[in-house]
Write a structure and sequence with these properties.
Length: about 220
């Protein structure tokens, strides 16, 4: 397997984050560029179906001599909206945007900050699919949190300015709103922290770690 992962994505933020995560295992990530409109993202009910359809298309564009290609599909799932926007996240972000989401949830409020977080609970979810030259590997990651009452911060991309990650315990597991964690943004959104802090919580990092755990080439020495 080569040390380059060719990542088919039109999203620079996703590319930068994946590059950071794979650098931790000595792999480089490069963008697999394909003319817009060539790759068709099917509308499906779950992220894995979308990602599996995209990898089949990505494989056709892998540069000669290269072996490893990845796609990743992510979305924001809001509990009070039955998981919406979920697989529709890109469309919803392009249309009503962060302000639209904040407006949809404006009635979900409470003086009690713990109750407010529960009412506004959400998660980012990511499914990464990688072809390593021999097999397809699927990695999944979830980041629990809640939706802020307004957009905060200029960092990151997409829904980052409205997403507050839940605190984490010493093992990196997400905690309930009433429990203070050892890792916390102290109520700040992903848009208000730098990318290295987002990585501590990130669904994308977890999905890529899940992939890496399953890559025989990277775990041969174990
Ligand atoms: P691809 O070309 O890789 O498909 P995309 O931007 O369409 O790029 P997704 O379908 O995976 O990416 O993402 C759906 C939406 O969710 C899109 O609007 C993203 O901006 C948003 N999103 C995904 N991951 C995010 C993250 O880590 N932080 C904030 N928003 C995110």
């Amino acid at each position: 397997m080569s040390a380059t992962v060719w990542f088919l994505t039109s999203n620079q933020g996703k590319l930068d984050e994946a590059a950071h995560h794979f650098s931790e295992v000595g792999m480089e990530v490069r963008a697999l560029s394909v003319d817009s409109g060539v790759v068709v993202e099917p509308q499906a009910e779950d992220l894995e179906t979308v990602a599996r359809a995209k990898i089949q298309q990505a494989l056709k564009h892998l540069p000669e001599g290269e072996t490893t290609v990845m796609v990743e599909d992510a979305g924001l799932f809001i509990d009070a909206l039955g998981g919406f926007p979920g697989v529709y996240s890109a469309y919803v972000h392009d249309t009503i945007g962060n302000l639209g989401i904040v407006r949809l949830l404006h009635h979900l409020t409470s003086e009690d900050p713990v109750r407010a977080k529960r009412l506004r609970a959400a998660s980012f979810q990511a499914v990464a699919v990688l072809w390593d030259g021999h097999q397809l590997i699927v990695g999944k990651g979830v980041c629990r949190g809640s939706i802020a009452s307004d957009a905060q911060g200029e960092n990151g991309f997409g829904y980052d300015p409205i997403f507050i990650p839940a605190d984490l315990d010493e093992d990196g597991a997400s905690l309930d709103p009433e429990t203070l964690g050892v890792v916390s943004t102290h109520g700040r959104t992903f848009g208000s922290v730098d990318v290295s802090e987002k990585h501590l919580f990130s669904h994308r990092r977890r999905a890529i770690e899940d992939l890496v755990r399953q890559m025989p080439q990277l775990n041969a020495g174990e």
